[in-house]
Amino acid sequence: MIYPVPRHLRSIFSVTSFKGNSLGGKIVCECGCESFKLLYFGSEYKSGHIGCLKYKNKFALNVTGICVSCGKRHLLFDLAKHGFDGFVNGEGVSVSDGELKEFSCCENGFNVEMLIETEDKENFAEDFIDADFSPEDYVDTFNWLVINLKCSECGKTLRDFVNIELS
Asked: How far apart are CA 60 and CA 48, in angstroms?
């Protein structure tokens, strides 16, 4: 089965569940490592969660993982580029790497799990196929994203590090 994995995640998203329009998976670097140091830009909450933050008169939210084994950088989510709001509506603004902060618990990074509510392929085809979009684009127009973390060292979990509706 071909799963509707957003194109920017295809090389690192290992599907663990798929039911209806809900896709779940873990992030695995091409080198096989499952631990990532996390960089982010967003509004910080006392609970450890992050959300959109006003930046240059728009909103921004970015989560980037850096493999602890090989050092490869992986953009996990950018509000300006991904999901319905970024891909279709062009909402949000990207931030420079210098604006990103490290999110940490222990030294060995995090295991990252993502839950993605995908756009219905048929609805997308009816509503958005025109000069700007092709049928394959529906995988990049997901409308909900949840990122859960588990510390690779101590095992502490943070559910809903990101939990955002994108429609």
From this structure: 17
- Write the DSSP assignment of the chain as a string of letters: ------GGGTTTEEEEEEETTEEEEEE--TTS---EEEEEESEE-TTS-EE-EEETTEEE-EEEEEETTT--EEEEEETTTSHIIIIIT--S----GGG-EEE-SSTT-EEEEEEEEPPPHHHHHHHH-SSS--GGGGGG--SEEEEEEEETTT--EEEEEEEEE--
Q: What is the tens place of the pLDDT at every residue in 15-38?
A: 999 999 999 999 999 999 999 999
Query: Do residues 140 and 133 lie in contact, with contact meaning Cβ atoms separated by under 8 Å?
Result: no
The length of the chain is 167
Q: Could you write out the DSSP letters of every residue in 69-92?
A: TT--EEEEEETTTSHIIIIIT--S
List pLDDT tens digits, range 52-88: 999 999 999 999 999 999 999 999 999 999 999 999 8
- Are 61 and 75 in contact by the 8 Å Cβ rule? The answer is no
